Amino acid sequence: MGKENIKKQREKEAKFVNTTVMSEEIINKFYKFYARRVNIFDFYSFLICGVLLIIIAIHFLINGSEYFLGIVGNIITSIILIGIGICFWMSAFKTQKYDKKSMVKIYAEDISNLSNDYYFDNKKVVIVNKYGETERVYDYLEAIYEAKDYYYIFTTKKNCHIMRKDSFQKGNEEEFHEFIKEKMGKNYKKRCIRKKRKR
In the predicted model, what is the mean pLDDT of residues 23-51? Predict the structure, then answer.
């Protein structure tokens, strides 16, 4: 069976079909989402450590010794702690960005414009692109995160596929939302406020 026939068969059998064309902007939004909404422990750990170090530095300045060497030592210590604290804060808010050069080295091309086809039936999802296909029954997906404009489909803890909400070729996003929430159970993670449907 040729590729076109396989595609038509999948479209026929699927309840929902989505074609998402990637871009650097979409990938960078995912990196930001992952840092702030998925990898939450690291994000808040860096923030808290930064605050604590700055508080300790202020304490050194306020409660400095009256002796000359003590004052100088406290000032130097405070400057160092404040610098480290600021670095922690910068690390918390700094997110990874799409690195075109690195991707070209790995894939021999820029993958920021890669197109993914998603086929959802009652048992599984099939994700297809030029590099091959990934098939997972819903019980074996790591999680699906819902953001404002995207669904992030984690096939493993470190492997994610980005799906746009406005790119359904079969079915619609409202119906898909109810469908995937039921299929994923506790592994469906909503990280946005959904707009209420107009009646």
Answer: 84
Burial class (CB in 10 A: 0-12, 13-18, 19+), 50: buried
37 and 76 together in one domain: yes
Asked if residue 83 belongs to a domain, the reply is yes
67 pLDDT tier (thresholds 50, 70, 90): very low
Domain with 172 in it: 3-22+114-187
* Alpha-carbon 187 to chain mean position: 15
Average pLDDT rounded to a whole number, residues 137-147: 96
12 and 64 assigned to the same domain? no
Rg of the chain in Å (alpha carbons): 24
Tell me the one-letter amino acid at 40: I
> Average pLDDT, stretch 60-71?
61
Domain count, the chain: 2
Give SS3 for 16. Answer: strand
Distance of CA 33 to the CA centre of its chain: 4
3-state secondary structure of 53: helix
CA atoms of 79 and 82, how far apart (whole Å): 5
pLDDT-derived band at 21 (thresholds 50, 70, 90) equals very high
**Per-position b or e across 143-175, b if 16+ CB within 10 A of its CB:** bbbbbeebbbbbbeeeebbbbbbebbeeeeeee
Residue 9 lies in a domain: yes
